[in-house]
C-alpha cells in the first residue's frame, strides 16, 4: 500500500498535498471546499489586522505557463480566519490547518500573533514574510536584519507551532545568510517559495494586470526550478527540526515527487489549483502514488531529500 501521508511538527496529515496561501482560501466557503477535497490540509489567505479590499482588478491572470498576480492582500481580517480554524478544530474529524498571517508593520504583526497566542487555536501558524504586492512595502524576508529582529521578538511570547513563508532567493550567499538566521529560532517549518516577485507579463502591447503598472508575482511552470532550488538549499542548511514545505510550479505528480525528493515534507499547489479547482488533489495524489509504486516507495519518507548528485 502506497501512502502520501506526512507529518509537520506534531501534526499528522493523511495527504502531503494542500493549497498554497492565496488560492481557494479567501472565504469559509472556499476553505470548506479544500477541507472536503483529498487535500491533507488547507492554509488560509494571509490575514491582516483589519480586513482589506486589495488592489484594483484585473489583479490575477492565468497564462499558458503560469500566472501573474498583484492582489494586494485582500482578506477578511485575521480574526475571520482564526475563528474558522478554531471552530473546525472542535470536530475530531477535522484536518489540522495552517493559519497564514502578517501585519502591515512589525507592530501589527506582533499584535496579531499575540491575539493568536491568547486564543484557543491549537494548530499551525504560517507567518508570511514574502508578500510582494503591497505598494511601498518591501518583502520582509529580503531584509535579513528586519527578519531577524521580528523573529527574535516573536519568540519572546509566541509558543504555538510557527513557520514562515519565504520568497525565492537567488544567490548561494543569501541561502547561507537566511539559513543562519532561521536556525537560531524554534521554527516548525519554512515554506519555499512564494511567487517570484515583480515579474511583468504583456499581451500585445499592454500589461496583463492593473496594479503597479503590470508588475506582479509570478507562479506556475515559470517558477518550478527556482522553487526546487530553494527547497533543497534550505533542506541542506536548516537544522532537522525545521521541516520544509515545498511550493512552486506543482501541477502533476512528477512535480510533487521532485519537491519531496528535494526535501519537502508537504507540497502546496497554487496556480494549478486556481486553474483546475480542488479536484486537482485527486489527480495529483494518484499520479504521485503511481510514481512511488513504480519505484517501490511506500511512504514519502522513503525518498524525501534523497536527491542524487553527479559525481
Ligand atoms: C499577496 C500575494 C502574496 O504573494 C502574498 O504572499 C500575500 C499576499 C497578495 O497580493 O494578496
TrEMBL record:
Cofactor(s) annotated in UniProt: FMN
UniProt-recorded Gene Ontology molecular function terms: dihydroorotate dehydrogenase (fumarate) activity
Species whose genome carries this gene: Streptococcus hillyeri
Cellular compartments per GO CC: cytoplasm
E.C. numbers: 1.3.-.-
Protein name in UniProt: Dihydroorotate dehydrogenase
Catalytic residue list: 131
Cofactor: binding comment: Binds 1 FMN per subunit.
Function description: Catalyzes the conversion of dihydroorotate to orotate with fumarate as the electron acceptor.
Subcellular location: Cytoplasm
Family: Belongs to the dihydroorotate dehydrogenase family. Type 1 subfamily.
NCBIfam families cross-referenced by the UniProt entry: PRK02506.1
GO process terms (BP): 'de novo' pyrimidine nucleobase biosynthetic process; 'de novo' UMP biosynthetic process
Pathway info: Pyrimidine metabolism; UMP biosynthesis via de novo pathway
Domain of life: Bacteria
InterPro entries: Aldolase_TIM, DHO_dehydrogenase, DHOD_1A, Dihydroorotate_DH_1, Dihydroorotate_DH_1_2, Dihydroorotate_DH_cat, Dihydroorotate_DH_CS
